[in-house]
């Protein structure tokens, strides 16, 4: 339906276009012919007319001649991309010699004749039978001719005319040379031109706005902008720094129809790179550079290097170095490495450690190429200080340590440096006076700090130290053939311990105890055995000791990640169960027998007036205590609601009042309650307020007996059993007392 609607719309546009744009024959015509033609043209806008040579005779017999005008050239128009169901009417051919009798036949030839354009040989109507594309062919040249239908003889000479394809907006703009690459200097001013992009539109630029393009920027704000009419891209932000960001991806859109809604659009990418300018001065990474030199170095040898960093590129980042000050200008010289662009400090003269131990130099690094545009951002140079120290030769004293024995004996102390604190043996200590000296030259650049330990031990021999006394060392017999360590006596009262194998592991054993036997040279020679503790230390790939302390080791567990997760999940579930259990325990338990508060309130009656006993029903509802109907049937429990009603068991029914035994009655009720399946398995309170119909005992209430004289005989209470013995004795005793008193008065 949408396509058919579009076809109808295009058909209407075609008809409107034909009516509005098709021209008529050029020139003017005289007389009736001109008037007829104008009126004919008015009726058929798309129209070509053929006029023949005619002779007319005037009133005076004068023959009037009019020049013959053949086909009058004109243009027809047809809209492109028409998809309607019927062929499009392009226009109509007509000749003046055509009187409508049908003897004239119209013939069409030329581009597309018979395939694209067909003509009705009787009426001269021309139709387009195919969809036309203006971008493929903008116009067609055709030839029209009128011939005799019977003889095919030409009635008029042939004439050409043009059918132009009218454009619609069916082509989007295209960037034929994209993607684009552009460069612009960093720190450029706002509005600096970067480049111009141009899009083309295949639609007719002379008709409507189909090819009128407007440019806009879709990506790249706020750094860049584009001129809507020209497509020139310009910078939009000041001080864009290449060192912060070098490349930008910009997307430009071209839209036809003047950029209005409904226009077609095309996009292209523009990669813009900021080029470098010299906007950064050089900078040394350190303010002071320490260097060292030894006495044995000759002039020309390198002492050290330093470099100033400049983030600019190429010539903008070049740095020239020079020595500008210091007390070592006569002793050192500076050059620049052409490859690394480093400043190289070399020895100009040999140094003498005894004469001067340290020299100071000041070096300057500057840019040789300065951009005048950014000269105000300078200065484009930096300075640093170099301190050159002469390396101490072998045997240079470092310092002295001293230890004192606080015991009364004040035994002599022996000093030594544990080798694990000075693996490479840069230092040595005098065993007697504690003087520490270097064993070889030190290189500050290779190692800035040396941390060593000095141990002081009391000498084991209690004898006085003689001037020529010395000790010898050997392994104790029990470890003489061990496979881990060996001992070498240095014959200077010292010994060296060597390892016999490789691959000591702290995981296997981190401490070894080596018994060592020490002998003196006295007479007789005395000896003692001491244990040397050897600790396995952790080292790096360069055999540098990292740690010798006892450290915890984490052994690899045999559990996978999934197993650990499962264990954690179980722990969480157990914790949740415990929390739930505690919460339930804290809740108030509901009683197994539900006693509603209303029932309790009904059974406890408070009033402050004396009633008339059982006959008084004004203070409370006596029905709560009595149930006459229950005497002949099953009495339901009030503390529960039974689901099923069970009939009374045989023998459990009520007994006549005249033969009732209260004790048996109570026992039967107890037995009934115990065997009742609807009763809970625990004791409950049952109130028996009904004495039965026709009971000889009547009411047991004491209210009536207090206020009125009673002539009832209570001897029958003696037959109620032991449960009512107290009651029978009470009433019987009272009656006897009253009778005795009356007898006394009478006498």
UniProtKB/TrEMBL annotation:
GO terms for biological process: adherens junction organization; calcium-dependent cell-cell adhesion via plasma membrane cell adhesion molecules; cell migration; cell morphogenesis; cell-cell adhesion mediated by cadherin; cell-cell junction assembly; homophilic cell adhesion via plasma membrane adhesion molecules; morphogenesis of an epithelium. Keywords: Calcium, Cell adhesion, Cell junction, Cell membrane, Glycoprotein, Membrane, Metal-binding, Repeat, Signal, Transmembrane, Transmembrane helix. Pfam families: CADH_Y-type_LIR (PF01049), Cadherin (PF00028). It is found in: Cell junction, Adherens junction; Cell membrane. InterPro entries: Cadherin, Cadherin-like_dom, Cadherin-like_sf, Cadherin_CS, Cadherin_Y-type_LIR, Catenin-bd_sf. It is a single-pass type I membrane protein. GO terms for cellular component: adherens junction; catenin complex. CDD domains: Cadherin_repeat (cd11304). The chain crosses the membrane at residues 563-584. Residues 1-27 form the signal peptide. Residues 40-56 have a biased composition (Basic residues). Residues 95-175, 176-284, 285-367, 380-554 form the Cadherin domain. One of its GO terms (molecular function) is calcium ion binding. Residues 33-63 are annotated as: Disordered. Cadherins are calcium-dependent cell adhesion proteins. This is Cadherin domain-containing protein.
């Amino acid at each position: 339906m949408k396509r058919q609607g579009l076809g109808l719309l295009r058909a209407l546009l075609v008809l409107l276009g034909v009516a509005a744009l098709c021209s008529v024959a050029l020139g003017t015509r005289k007389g009736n012919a001109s008037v007829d033609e104008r009126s004919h043209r008015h009726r058929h806008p798309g129209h070509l007319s053929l006029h023949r040579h005619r002779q007319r005779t005037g009133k005076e017999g004068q023959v009037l001649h009019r020049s013959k005008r053949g086909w009058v050239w004109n243009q027809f128009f047809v809209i492109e991309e028409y998809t309607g169901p019927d062929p499009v009417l392009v226009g109509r051919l007509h000749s003046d010699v055509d009187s409508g009798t049908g003897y004239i036949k119209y013939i069409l030839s030329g581009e597309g004749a018979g395939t694209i354009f067909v003509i009705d040989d009787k009426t001269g109507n021309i139709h387009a039978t195919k969809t036309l594309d203006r971008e493929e062919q903008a116009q067609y040249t055709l030839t029209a001719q009128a011939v005799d239908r019977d003889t095919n003889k030409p009635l008029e000479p042939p004439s050409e005319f043009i059918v132009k394809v009218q454009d619609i907006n069916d082509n989007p703009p295209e960037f034929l040379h994209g993607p684009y690459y552009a460069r612009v200097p960093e720190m450029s001013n706002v509005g600096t031109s970067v480049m111009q992009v141009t899009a083309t539109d295949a639609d007719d630029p002379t008709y409507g706005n189909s090819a009128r393009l407007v440019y806009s920027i879709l990506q790249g704000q706020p750094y860049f902008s584009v001129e809507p009419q020209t497509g020139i891209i310009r910078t939009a932000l000041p001080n864009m720094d290449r060192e912060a960001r070098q490349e930008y991806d910009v997307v430009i859109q071209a839209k036809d129809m003047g950029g209005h809604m409904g226009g077609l659009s095309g996009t292209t990418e523009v990669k813009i790179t900021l080029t470098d300018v010299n906007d950064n001065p050089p900078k040394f990474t350190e303010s002071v550079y320490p260097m060292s030199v030894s006495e044995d170095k000759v002039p020309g040898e390198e002492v050290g290097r330093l470099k100033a960093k400049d983030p600019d590129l190429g010539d903008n980042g070049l740095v020239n170095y020079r020595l500008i000050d210091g007390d070592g200008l006569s002793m050192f010289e500076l050059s620049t490495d052409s490859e690394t662009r480093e400043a190289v400090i070399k020895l100009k003269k040999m140094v003498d450690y005894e004469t001067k131990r340290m020299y100071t130099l000041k070096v300057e690094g500057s840019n040789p190429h300065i951009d005048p545009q950014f000269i105000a951002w300078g200065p484009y140079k930096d300075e640093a200080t170099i301190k050159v120290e002469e390396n101490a030769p072998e045997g240079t004293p470092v310092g002295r340590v001293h230890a004192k024995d606080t015991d009364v004996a004040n035994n002599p102390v022996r000093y030594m440096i544990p080798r694990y604190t000075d693996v490479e043996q840069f230092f040595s200590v005098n065993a007697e006076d504690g003087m520490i000296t270097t064993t070889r030259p030190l290189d500050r650049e290779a190692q800035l700090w040396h941390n060593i330990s000095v141990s002081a031990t009391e000498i084991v021999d209690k004898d006085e130290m003689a001037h020529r006394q010395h000790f010898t060392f050997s392994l104790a017999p029990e470890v003489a053939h061990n496979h881990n360590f060996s001992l070498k006596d240095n014959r200077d009262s010292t010994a060296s311990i060597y390892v016999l194998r490789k691959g000591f592991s702290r995981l296997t054993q981190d401490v070894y105890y080596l018994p060592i036997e020490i002998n003196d040279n006295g007479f007789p020679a005395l000896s003692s055995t001491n244990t040397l503790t050897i600790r396995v230390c952790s080292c790096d790939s360069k055999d540098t000791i990292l740690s010798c302390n006892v450290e915890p080791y984490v052994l690899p567990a045999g559990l996978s990640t999934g197993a650990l997760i499962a264990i954690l999940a179980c722990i969480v579930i157990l914790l949740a169960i415990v929390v739930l259990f505690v919460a339930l325990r804290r809740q108030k338990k509901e009683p197994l027998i539900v006693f509603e508060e209303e029932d309790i309130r009904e059974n406890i009656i408070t009033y402050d007036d004396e009633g008339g006993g059982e006959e008084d029903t004004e203070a409370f509802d006596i029905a709560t205590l009595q149930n006459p109907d229950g005497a002949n049937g099953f009495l339901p429990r009030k503390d529960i609601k039974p689901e099923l009603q069970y009939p009374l068991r045989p023998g459990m029914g009520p007994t006549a009042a005249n033969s009732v035994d209260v004790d048996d009655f109570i026992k039967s009720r107890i037995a009934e309650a115990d065997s009742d399946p609807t009763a809970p398995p625990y004791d409950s309170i049952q109130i028996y307020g009904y004495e039965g119909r026709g009971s000889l005992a009547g009411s047991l209430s004491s209210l009536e007996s207090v206020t009125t004289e009673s002539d009832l005989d209570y001897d029958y209470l003696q037959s109620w059993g032991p449960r009512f013995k107290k009651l029978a004795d009470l009433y019987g005793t009272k009656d006897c007392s009253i009778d005795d008193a009356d007898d006394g008065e009478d006498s």
